């Protein structure tokens, strides 16, 4: 192929790579304000509960590498795929500037989150656009939960999880779809994030033939703001109180193993489930599943 390649800036939240990086990472999240010793200790405790660090950095690197290879195989020389994180090096701004300095004039912005929001993915795009400058065109990919193949992939994960439940009880099992909560103030400007979650859950439910399903929010921040609810932990309790004995947790808002999955569901939610006598099964994370990479490759090529 002749001419300049199209840049692909893959973006995600980021995660500390080592236990020693947690304090600096937490400070960046707090916009330069170091966390209190109590807050830092609590975050370190959660990382320790999943082995000391999150596998997210490695999972994301594998996703980006696989996307790069798939895009190259589809259209040799057409795309320059790079990664930038919101709160951990390489930062979005650094990768965006590197693309600009290397002569790329068109960049596709792709967040590794299927749903979009003014307080999450839109911020990624804004930071990328500012760093790229006026001479580089940013093609921002919005929500891609409805991209061909994605809901089918989630439906397969749900079906696999349901298959682990005793056959005699499977028909009565509940499936609970969840995504990262955000402050309720996003609703004041008409943010469609909650509707996207419910629509994607409904789509999976139809594909998987689900009768009993619902949505919940998880991983709310530790701030004074009111956050989107209901929270997954409270839903577990009300669901069990209603007589449900088996529940499949499907964190549809996440595409890789990380703290919000490995701790918030596998440790915290599982702890509540054991306490109340609920059999909780989680769907397997997508990570670098070739089927997800194929979906993302099509999203990129469609944007270009």
Structural account:
The mean pLDDT is 96. The strands form two sheets. The chain has a four-stranded parallel beta sheet, with helices on both faces. A four-stranded parallel beta sheet has the order 6-5-7-8, sandwiched between helices. It has helices at 22-29, 37-49, 56-74, 92-101, 121-132, 150-162, 167-170, 193-208, 232-241, 259-262, 264-276, 290-303; strands at 6-12, 79-85, 106-111, 137-140, 174-180, 213-218, 246-250, 279-282. It has twelve helices and eight strands. It is globular, with a radius of gyration of 20 Å. 45% of the residues lie in helices and 15% in strands. The chain has two domains: 6-144 and 289-303, Rossmann fold (3-Layer(aba) Sandwich); 150-282, Rossmann fold. By secondary structure, it is α/β, with parallel strands linked by helices. Helix 5 links the parallel strand 3 (106-111) and strand 4 (137-140).
A few lines on this structure:
With 304 residues, the protein is α/β, with parallel strands linked by helices.
């Amino acid at each position: 192929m002749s001419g300049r390649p199209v840049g692909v800036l893959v973006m995600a939240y980021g995660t500390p790579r080592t236990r020693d990086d947690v304090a600096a990472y937490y400070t960046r999240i707090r916009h330069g304000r170091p966390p209190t010793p109590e807050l830092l200790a609590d975050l370190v405790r959660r990382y320790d509960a999943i082995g000391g660090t999150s596998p997210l950095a490695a999972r994301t690197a594998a996703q980006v590498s696989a996307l790069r290879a798939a895009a190259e195989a589809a259209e040799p020389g057409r795309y320059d795929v790079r990664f930038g994180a919101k709160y951990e090096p390489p930062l979005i701004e650094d990768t965006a500037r590197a693309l600009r300095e290397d002569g790329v004039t068109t960049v596709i912005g792709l967040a590794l989150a299927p749903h979009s929001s003014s307080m999450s993915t839109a911020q990624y795009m804004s930071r990328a656009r500012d760093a790229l400058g006026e001479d580089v065109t940013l093609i921002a990919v919005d929500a891609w939960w409805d991209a061909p193949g994605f809901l089918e992939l989630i439906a397969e994960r749900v079906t696999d999880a349901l298959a682990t439940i005793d056959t005699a009880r499977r028909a009565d099992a509940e499936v609970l779809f969840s995504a990262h909560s955000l402050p309720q103030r996003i609703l004041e400007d008409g943010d469609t994030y909650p509707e996207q979650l419910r629509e994607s859950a409904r789509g999976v439910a139809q594909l998987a033939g689900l009768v009993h399903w619902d949505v919940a929010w998880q991983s709310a921040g530790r701030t004074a703001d009111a956050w989107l609810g209901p929270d997954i932990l409270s839903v577990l309790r009300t669901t069990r109180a209603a007589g449900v004995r088996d529940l499949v947790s499907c964190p549809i808002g996440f595409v890789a193993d990380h703290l919000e999955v490995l701790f918030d569901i596998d440790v915290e939610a599982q702890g509540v489930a054991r306490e109340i006598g609920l059999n909780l099964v989680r769907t397997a994370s997508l990570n670098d599943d070739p089927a997800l990479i194929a979906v993302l490759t099509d999203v990129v090529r469609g944007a270009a």
